[in-house]
Specification:
The chain is an alpha/beta fold. The chain has helices at 6-16, 35-45, 83-115, 139-147, 165-170; strands at 26-29, 48-51, 54-59, 62-70, 75-77, 127-135, 155-163. The strands form two sheets. Strands 2-1-6-7 form a four-stranded parallel β-sheet, with helices on both faces.
């Protein structure tokens, strides 16, 4: 999809989702960079906005992203790793990985105050829209789906501006 900026993207996405207007939908921002597009979308369909705050976890000396830590303290492994690879990483780098998780969780707790507290139970029975402006891998979506495991939503949509083919298949 071609768009001028993130506000334009939110407007274009809202054109495709106009049937959701007034249905108490919740726009879930897959990352903070997507908030501008989410605000534009939510304002046009009269929806709530909920940022899914996450931070990528890496291990020094390894260029790969190990996974994401969310503001609830849950760690989600990169879905690109097999069980065998995850076990190897944990075996070799457990203490470094745990330190990285603790530091990320601390930073996330400071950022939560920017948006305020929101109870997961507020998502029950609602239509949820996972929105990303640029979705280049499956990480954010894997974290969002893990976060939503305990939520009983009415419907779940995944929408984005520029979406990588592997991420689109994951949707």
């Amino acid at each position: 999809m071609y768009y001028l900026n993130r506000i334009d993207l939110g407007g274009r996405l809202s054109e495709n989702l106009s049937e959701l207007k007034g249905q108490e939908a919740v726009v879930l921002a897959l990352k903070e960079n997507s908030m501008t597009a989410c605000i534009a979308l939510a304002s046009r369909i009269n929806a709530w906005i909920y940022p899914l705050l996450t931070e990528r976890i890496t291990v020094p000396g390894d260029p790969r992203v190990m996974g994401l830590m969310n503001d609830g303290g849950q760690f989600v492994w990169n879905p690109e790793f097999s069980t065998y690879e995850r076990e190897g990483i944990e075996l070799e780098s457990r203490s470094v990985l745990e330190d990285a998780k603790r530091e990320a969780f601390s930073r996330l707790n400071r950022r939560v105050s920017t948006y305020g507290e929101f109870s997961k139970s507020g998502l029950d029975g609602r239509i949820l829209l996972m929105v990303g402006d640029i979705v280049k891998d499956r990480l954010e979506m894997a974290a969002a789906l893990d976060y939503l495991k305990s939520v009983r939503y009415a419907k779940l949509y995944a929408v984005g501006g520029n979406v990588d083919a592997a991420a689109a298949d994951y949707m």
